Amino acid sequence: MKMTKKPLYIDYRRLEKLAYDILLKGGLSEMEAQETATHLVRANLRGVDSHGITRVPIYLKRLHVGVVRAKADVSIIHETPVSAYIDGNNGIGPYIARKTTEIAIEKAKKSGVAIVGLTNANHLGTLGYYSELAVNEGLITFITANAPANMPPFGGAEKYFGTNPFSYGFPTGREKPFILDMATSVVSKGKIILAMKNNENIPLGWAIDKNGQETTNAQEAVDGLVLPLGGPKGYGLAFMVDILSGIMTGSNWGPHINDLYSNFTEPQNVGMFAIVLRPDLFISEVEFKKKIDQAISEVRNLKLQKGFDRIYIPGEIETITLEKRRSEGVPLTIETVTELERLGKELEVNVDFLTDLIQMA
Fold it and tell me: Is the CB of residue 264 less than 8 Å from the CB of residue 223?
């Protein structure tokens, strides 16, 4: 088989159907399989390929060995009109997190604000997806989720924190939704794993090897540590995420979270924390949207630094990528396509179109 760095383009609807078929055959319910497939392909559409379709194999492996529970749903441990403490019952992450977000959205619409905590969950995917759900309902959102330890505190040489992402989103008027989704590390661990799978190097400054030396070798980085964004600043944010998502929700945190790729005997027990609120708590929704549109326009039209051709608003690059990939297809490496082909054949899913793509590459 000829190996190439040239990407293979697949229509996102076809890719989502493939992911759905594989996940359904892997044991998920129809709703779980559909939501997970939609979530993963949405990540690819937005250019977050490290959290996209490449996650299907590890999700299936964890289902197969029994450390993730198929056909699980959320249950509310206790609640008030403005809060809910939710048990994910060790279900598949994207489905459980969406249900949690929907509970927060419903409460925020009624009460103006909602604070929810999710425990007993698994890898949740991209947090921006959940922020977008709330923003599309006209709500402001702030979400955190913690991850297995692979990052040291600033000045440390031993892992304690995960890449611990957070996301926020604001509804707008005429502008595109304002959504930030970022890890508290320089880069997510998933991007390094994807580089390793594709036999690619990584930039200096992303990670250190197990001896504490900077490296461009993705495998050495996977075996080593990712670095906090902005040194002490990223470290402080990562600590905040662990407190909110892990300690406050009664979930695991830091080194107590079981690794997605290496621990196949115990559940992860990841936590999620979210605040969702209406934008009319202080000023009218109309005034809020008018002013946020004004702020976005003012920022976008500021004088540029040399070497820059425009200023992007948080989430704007992902929106542009989404529109492009919807029309042109989702680019995947041949390594990823080959892995999906193998998995599909094992589960007796029709992957003839993948075989044809590989043969033409």
Answer: no
> CB-based burial of residue 273 (10 Å sphere; 0-12 exposed, 13-18 middle, 19+ buried)?
buried
CB 334 within 8 A of CB 11: no
A 10 A CB-CB count for 271 gives 28
Under CATH, what is the fold of the domain 1-65+330-361?
Answer: Hypothetical Oxidoreductase Yiak; Chain: A, domain 1 (1.10.1530)
Q: Pseudo-torsion of CA 209, 210, 211, 212, nearest 10°?
A: 60
Tens digit of pLDDT at every position of the chain (361 positions): 334 478 999 999 999 999 999 999 999 999 999 999 999 999 999 999 999 999 999 999 999 999 999 999 999 999 999 999 999 999 999 999 999 999 999 999 999 999 999 999 999 999 999 999 999 999 999 999 999 999 999 988 899 999 999 999 999 999 999 999 999 999 887 789 889 988 899 999 899 998 888 899 999 998 899 999 999 999 999 999 999 999 999 999 999 999 999 999 999 999 999 999 999 999 999 999 999 999 999 999 999 999 999 999 999 999 999 999 999 999 999 999 999 999 999 999 999 999 999 998 7
Outline which parts of the chain fall under CATH 1.10.1530.10: 1-65+330-361
Note the pTM of the prediction, 2 decimals.
0.92
Distance CA 17, CA 24 (A): 10
Whole-number Å distance between alpha carbons of 274 and 118 = 9
> Which residue spans of the chain are classified as CATH 3.30.1370.60?
70-185+228-328
CATH for 70-185+228-328 (3.30.1370.60, 3.30.300.230, 2.60.120.10, 3.40.50.1000):
3.30.1370.60
Token duo for residue 163: 């890449």
Q: How many whole angstroms separate alpha carbon 36 and alpha carbon 71?
A: 12
Spatial separation of the C-alpha atoms in residues 153 and 238, rounded to whole Å: 9
Cβ–Cβ under 8 Å, residues 47 and 315 = no
